[in-house]
Specification:
heterodimer; A: alpha/beta; 6-stranded mixed β-sheet; 4-stranded antiparallel β-sheet; 7 helices; disordered N terminus; B: alpha/beta; 10-stranded mixed β-sheet; 9 helices
């Protein structure tokens, strides 16, 4: 099945380098994601997974030193985070920020209306948005009262994660980057989050799922799995690659890489 | 009247003594006695310009006040003022009862006193009857002790007219009563010494708004003293809102004494002024009172706002809550010095104090200093303080959802103050203050979406 729309990929990363505070974190990363695909990026702690997620979404503390990031044909490198969001890029945060004094539903409506405005579409008034929001909360089995509270304030770990997936449903992005959506979740919460993600999969939308563990991939089955070690994708494959990691761990891959380098 | 080479304190005393000798001040025996004592006290104390080792004034330099020869406003301007000020420019609704003072003079035409229940007194001191004076004499100066307080002593040296509100027992007043002090600033370097006495009888309920407004953006000096007496089971909502000239000096001394099982709340809003110092002292004189002292200040440029709040829990089972928040831009400074005293035997006191500052500029400075003096074991006291710049993670979180940076900053700034604004009980005042804060922040941050 050819998923490349108009011959264009959703995301095209070429030889991406990035450093934080003088330390190079990404050292020449290449990745192509086509519409409809779910890519899992796995790697040990400190391999650069979260850096990649922040770089793609435009966090001001992360800067690409060289290389290219094309999203839907547009260069992301110097684009503001809000403009990336408006183009349909979405980051599901590993640690969603608490914002006291800003109500969850107000915040989501403000965001969605900025996106709609940028596309010259009609903005949603409170009534319309409430209805729309109500139609989405069941995707993550979320308590309706939570959206009246301040953004993430006093939410449990699981509620925060579900809240991220709820926002993914609200914004309906072309490309979602899910940064460890499974971390800190018990089995039930994991199933709810994974269920939500699966409901949002479609032929046109792509997902990059960053994870340390294979666990969530039992629920959200990826099209491709990449192993990120030391700032580079060192191995790519199908969903079976994740199982291999589960069995043998990252050490095994790192070991064989080291051996390759020595013999090469 | 100011003479070259005369110490500023002498200059004030000369003016005050001159007024006394020409019988220009309120001739009540009680007033006269207070003035004489206060003059002596002020002469001894002088302005608190010495800051070394003086905790109370460590971060606030009042030497500019001491250096400028402020004068009484020229009353010949009153005719002119009446011509330009046709409606009171306070913060309440037009039909609310209000006492309006312009450049220290009571303005009957601008004031509204009507439809009050029997025995409720809302008047200026000069209109007080002999019976009223007995009541005033019993309370005025009783709570605001000028010994050791130069600004209070200075105010009392000029004790003349002022606002007097007395609510008898068992009376509920629905609309707030506003006291407006308007300083025209038509002349440079004038001073006014507002004086307020509010007595709330047992089980009565009222809201009082003390408003300080200005017309011209000139330099002047406001130095007020307010005494609030809250009866047993009474409920007083007290607002102090200040939007005076950004070149002005604004000192206030508010003394509150709360009775048994009473409820008191204060909301202190400072948007104007160059140098602002609010002394707010609350004494819980009987068991079971509940007090909430909140404040909000928005400053930029070289504005300086200092809130000194002392809560004296003298009796058991008394509760206090303090929430002060400030937004600082430019090179502005804020000081919050919150003291909580729990006296011996004042068990089951529950006191909590929070001061938070949002710094919008690298050059703004916020000093916050909580102090607890607890002489009783069985109490619950807590405090929190925070001074910081905008949370960059929160900012990114909002932007990652498509909200542009300016709107995100505005949203977070408003969210910061919403906690205080939402706590404002009176709906009209809440809207007024919300609008003022919004438009102020709009100017600072740019437009809102």
């Amino acid at each position: 099945m050819d998923k490349v729309k108009n011959g264009k990929s959703m995301l095209n990363i070429t030889d991406l380098h990035a450093s934080i505070g003088g330390t190079e974190i990404l050292k020449g990363l290449n990745l192509t994601v086509n519409p409809g695909e779910v890519h899992a990026i796995m790697g040990p702690n400190g391999s650069g997974k979260s850096t990649l997620a922040y770089l793609l979404s435009g966090h001001p503390s992360y800067e690409a030193t060289s290389g290219e990031m094309l999203f839907d044909g547009q260069d992301l490198v110097n684009m503001l985070p809000e403009d990336r969001a408006r183009l349909g890029l979405f980051l599901c945060f590993q640690h969603p920020t608490e914002v006291p004094g800003v109500r969850m539903d107000h915040f989501m409506r403000a965001g969605l209306n900025s996106v709609l405005r940028s596309k010259s579409l009609d903005e949603m008034d409170v009534l319309k948005f409430d209805k729309f929001l109500n139609s989405k909360v069941d995707i993550v089995e979320m308590d309706r009262n939570l959206v009246k509270r301040s953004v993430n304030e006093g939410f449990s770990g699981g509620e925060k994660k579900r809240n991220e997936i709820l926002q993914m449903a609200i914004f309906d992005p072309k490309l979602s980057i899910l940064d460890e959506p499974d971390s800190g979740l018990d089995v039930d919460a994991l199933r709810i989050v994974a269920n939500g993600i699966n409901q949002l999969r479609s032929e046109e939308k792509s997902i990059i799922l960053v994870t340390h563990y294979q666990r969530i991939l039992n629920y959200v089955v990826p099209d491709k799995v990449h192993i990120l070690i030391n700032g580079r994708i060192v191995k790519s494959g199908g969903k079976e690659l994740a199982l291999e990691i589960e069995t043998n761990g990252y050490d095994n891959i790192e070991q064989s890489l080291a051996n390759d380098q020595h013999s090469g | 009247m100011t003479q070259i080479g005369v110490k500023p304190e002498e200059s004030y005393l000369n003016i005050s003594e001159h007024l006394e000798s020409t019988a220009s001040l309120n001739d009540s025996v009680h007033f006269k006695g207070l003035r004489n004592k206060a003059r002596k006290c002020f002469q001894e104390l002088g302005f608190p310009v010495e800051r070394r080792g003086n905790e109370e004034w460590k971060y606030t330099d009042v030497s500019p006040i001491a250096k400028i020869p402020f004068e009484m406003p020229d009353l010949r301007h009153q005719q002119f003022v009446r011509g330009i000020v046709s409606t009171p420019v306070g913060f309440g609704k037009s039909h609310w009862n209000k006492l309006v003072f312009v450049d220290g003079q009571y303005e009957e035409k601008l004031s509204v006193v009507k439809d009050l229940p029997d025995n409720v007194l809302v008047k200026d001191f000069n209109k007080a009857s002999k019976g009223d004076y007995d009541l005033i004499g019993k309370h005025l100066g009783n709570y605001a002790d000028f010994h050791g307080n130069a600004f209070n002593a200075l105010n009392t040296s000029f004790l003349d007219n002022g606002a007097f509100i007395s609510i008898p027992n068992e009376v509920v007043i629905n609309d707030p009563i506003e006291i407006i002090f308007m300083t025209t600033g038509l002349e440079q370097d004038t001073f006014i010494q507002p004086r307020i006495l509010v007595l709330v009888g047992d089980n009565s309920k009222v809201a009082i708004v003390e408003s300080y407004v200005g017309i011209e953006d000139t330099r002047y000096f406001n130095n007020s003293v307010t005494e609030l007496v809250v009866g047993n089971g009474a409920n007083l909502e007290y607002y102090k809102i200040q939007t005076q000239s950004r070149k002005s000096f604004h000192i206030t001394n508010t003394e509150i004494i709360v009775g048994k099982d009473s409820t008191f709340s204060s909301m202190n809003i400072d948007l104007g002024g160059k140098l602002v110092r609010n002394n707010l002292n609350l004494l819980t004189n009987a068991e079971g009172s509940y007090s909430v002292l909140n404040g909000l200040y928005l400053v930029n440029g070289t504005q300086h706002v200092d809130n000194q709040v002392i809560i004296d829990h003298a009796k058991p089972h008394t509760t206090s809550r303090e929430l002060y928040k400030g937004i600082l831009d430019g090179k502005s400074k804020s000081v919050f010095h919150g003291s909580i005293i729990v006296r011996e035997g004042a068990y089951k006191v529950n006191a909590n104090q929070v001061d938070k500052n949002l710094l919008l500029s690298d050059k703004a400075e916020a000093y916050t200093k909580p102090a607890f003096w607890v002489y009783c074991d069985d109490v619950l006291c807590g405090h929190g303080a925070a001074c910081g710049q905008m949370d960059e993670n929160a900012l990114f979180y909002l932007r990652s959802r498509g909200i542009d940076e300016l709107s995100a900053r505005s949203l977070l700034t408003l969210a910061f103050v919403s906690e205080v604004i939402d706590s404002i009980g009176n709906e009209h005042l809440r809207e007024q203050i919300n609008d003022m804060v919004h438009s102020r922040l709009e100017d600072w941050l740019g437009i809102f979406s």
